[in-house]
What does this fold into?
Amino acid sequence: MATIPEVMSDTPTRDDDQLLPDGGSNEQPSADAPARRYTEEQKYQVFNKEFMPHIDSMYNFAFRLTTDEDDANDLVQDTYLKAFRFISSFEQGTNAKAWLFRILKNSFINDYRKKSKEPAKVDYQDVETTYNSEDAETEHTVDLRAESVSDLIGDEVATALNSLPVDFRTVIILCDIEGFTYEEMAKILDIPIGTVRSRLHRARNLLKEKLRDYASSMGYNEENEE
Amino acid sequence: MKDHCSHQADCLKMIQLIVDGEATEQQLAKLKANLESCKPCIEMYQLEKEVKELLAKRMEKKCCPEQLVATIKSRILSFS
It folds into this structure.
């Protein structure tokens, strides 16, 4: 396991995916997984002390991903049951929140994305292609001012966020709502830090376009502000 | 005060790093200089901060229903 960086060795990289409690298919951690021997009592202690305090954040993340309360319920429950089942691969004192978020994110992709009630509003490939183009990388800035968005209410921000493709929505939730660092996000999402950075950049440009549409439809345009 | 920024897209990337607390000392120093002399950079910085704050503070935080907490706790007790 020499490829695991010393920081956050509890949230493994893509190199050791097969050891992770994310697919649901590998009941037994392999021999070289960092398996702890918790007693039954310790398992409950770790679960209650390290995992349960994050349940509101986990629920909020699940709700923002699925945009549905029932799906969020199921997703959070599945994630916590998986976390308990694979508790031996969690090292006490390491980043439990990132570890849990990673399981939830993978469960969402594997089990929920297909049956999500949310219609696919934007084709992710199209968006990725558009925003990966040279122009998008070097020229794209959104014509919007801070004053124009300062009066938006939470529901409007949520609607704008929900209209983004899920991969873009995810980086914004992790960074701006949950306050994860880029490095933590890279581990949670199994992508390089550079990709975290550029995906966030594109996600924010898309979000600002949505916010601009909102702001101008409500009359908070520049003319009114000055 | 500059009214036009010729590398606005690059400045925006740097501004986001700073707003996210991921910038190096060097990038911080560069931004500080820009914020004293470049109007588009000032405006971009204010917008990025405002949007981040909107997301962090104005969106409702959904709390986990008590019933779900109870269900999870009872389900794991039946595991062993």
Summary: The longest helix of chain B spans residues 39-58.
